[in-house]
Amino acid sequence: MMAVAALGMLPTVLIAYPYASRFSLPAQVAAHLLLPVAAAVFKLGYVVRLAAHHKLGNYSAG
Question: Residue 6, CB half-sphere, CA atoms under 13 Å: how many?
Fold first, then answer.
């Protein structure tokens, strides 16, 4: 989940910022809107990872 979110964040950042002039305005808006969504999925994946470590008894993970 974290890897997919991180891979999803990369194109959104590239479209929204350094290569914005090469993309249409709707594509830039979509990239700006998807960036916090990808970040939220990444954070959710991290919480799931921590919960799995806790369930396995590894309380020092993090």
Answer: 5
User: 2-57: per-residue pLDDT in tens?
Assistant: 999 999 999 999 999 999 999 999 999 999 999 999 999 999 999 999 999 999 99
**pTM for this entry:** 0.83
What's the helix, strand, coil split of the chain in %, to 5? 80, 0, 20
Whole-angstrom Cα distance, residue 52 to residue 35? 26
Are 42 and 13 contacting, i.e. CB atoms less than 8 angstroms apart? no
